[in-house]
Write a structure and sequence with these properties.
By secondary structure, the chain is of the alpha+beta class. It folds into 3 domains: 155 residues, no CATH class; 31 residues, no CATH class; 88 residues, no CATH class. The chain is built from 7 helices and 16 strands. Strand 6 and strand 7 form a beta hairpin. The longest helix has 23 residues. It is flat.
Length: 348
């Protein structure tokens, strides 16, 4: 599991509810056989960053307790606070990321609000954004890094540690492109970001661009046209409107947002129950259906709460939690077992 989200990407948050669920013993070696008392004490809080970690642990665990109780999840208060206080990454002297004390108060307020609400995903996303700033990265774009927090953040420039270097990360599912092209811009690829369903890019430099200086070609190769912006990188190497329905797909197999590339070219979404296969790299079904790509390969009706699922896209409410379609909650098996990063929770 990737725990490298933002400044708190390494945050491991433990089980939270009101009381232990009968029959759900804790097997962690840090607990006695009854699973009720932690063996390892919290480390001393002698620095501002350590005090923040403790305050964050209290804010999170004290407020999320009722959420896990409502979800019938095991809760061990001391274990929750131990995992949070020792798991949150706040930088340290001599490292390439340092603690940002100015971000602590708003982060604590935001996490209290998000955990107290239990079922408000918007508040959780707000906490994500605010608590990302709890560290300051010192590595500029192009510099070597180990974790996202080490990369210096600039306004409107989402930077992540990608393949060991700080680089622009336009979307979580689209890596390696430094610029999003606008209509008429020279380009090297078409990209589509499908959110929880993933994303993909495809492209090669057009032969029309041969003869340009090498530095200019490198810049063009790092420019992508985004399908959700109504653009594809054409065979002429220019960001242009996508192919119309009934015409040939873009060279990378892209069509307009919502359409899909069929054997006959760009086509509207596949209706529920259609015999047309949908098991390809892009979402192809109408909004009330999902692609059962690993079984029937057909578009099936989305599922109601309580039905089993493998991905959130299978559910009518767009949330697959613990293998079943459910309303979104901050409390699910991983969070209540101490296995959490912010992005994982918001993406349930």
């Amino acid at each position: 599991m990737n725990r490298n989200w933002g400044a708190l990407g390494s945050l491991c948050v433990a089980a939270c509810g009101i009381a232990a669920v009968p029959g759900c013993g804790n097997t962690d070696p840090r607990f006695d056989p009854k699973g009720t008392e932690p063996i390892l004490p919290l480390p001393p809080a002698t620095t501002d960053s350590a005090r923040f970690a403790r305050n964050f642990a209290n804010a999170f665990c004290d407020n999320i307790a009722k959420c896990c109780a409502a979800a019938v999840r095991q809760f061990i208060p001391d274990y929750c606070k131990y995992n949070v206080a020792t798991g949150v990454y706040v930088g340290s002297p001599g490292e390439q990321a340092v603690f940002n004390p100015d971000a602590a108060p708003p982060c604590l307020v935001a996490i209290r609000e998000a955990t107290s609400a239990c079922n408000d995903r918007t508040l959780w996303l707000k906490a994500e954004a605010i608590c990302t700033t709890i560290t300051k990265g010192l590595v500029s774009r192009g510099g070597a890094c180990i974790r996202n927090e080490e990369c210096a953040r600039l306004p409107d420039e989402p930077v992540s540690c990608i393949a060991g270097y700080c680089a622009l990360n336009l979307f979580p599912n689209i890596l390696g492109y430094d610029k999003l092209g606008k209509l008429g811009d020279l380009c090297g690829a078409t990209c589509a970001d499908y959110g929880r369903e993933g994303g993909r890019c495809s492209g090669t430099l057009s032969s029309n661009l041969r003869g340009l200086p090498e530095a200019e070609l490198r810049a063009i190769a790092q420019t992508a046209c985004l399908v959700s912006d109504g653009l594809v990188c054409s065979s002429e190497g220019v960001c242009a409107p996508p192919p119309a329905r009934g015409t040939a797909c873009n060279g990378g197999g892209f069509c307009a947002l919502g359409d899909h590339c069929s054997r006959d070219g760009c086509a509207p979404p596949i209706p529920t129950g259609s015999a047309e296969p949908c098991a390809n790299v892009d979402p192809a079904c109408e909004s009330s259906a999902f692609c059962d790509r690993y079984d029937t390969g057909r578009c099936l009706p989305k599922k109601s709460n309580g039905q089993s699922c493998g991905r959130s896209s299978e559910c009518l409410n767009d949330h697959c939690i613990d293998g079943h379609c459910r309303d979104w909650s901050v409390a699910f098996s991983d969070t209540c077992d101490g296995k959490l990063d912010f992005g994982q929770v918001s993406n349930q």
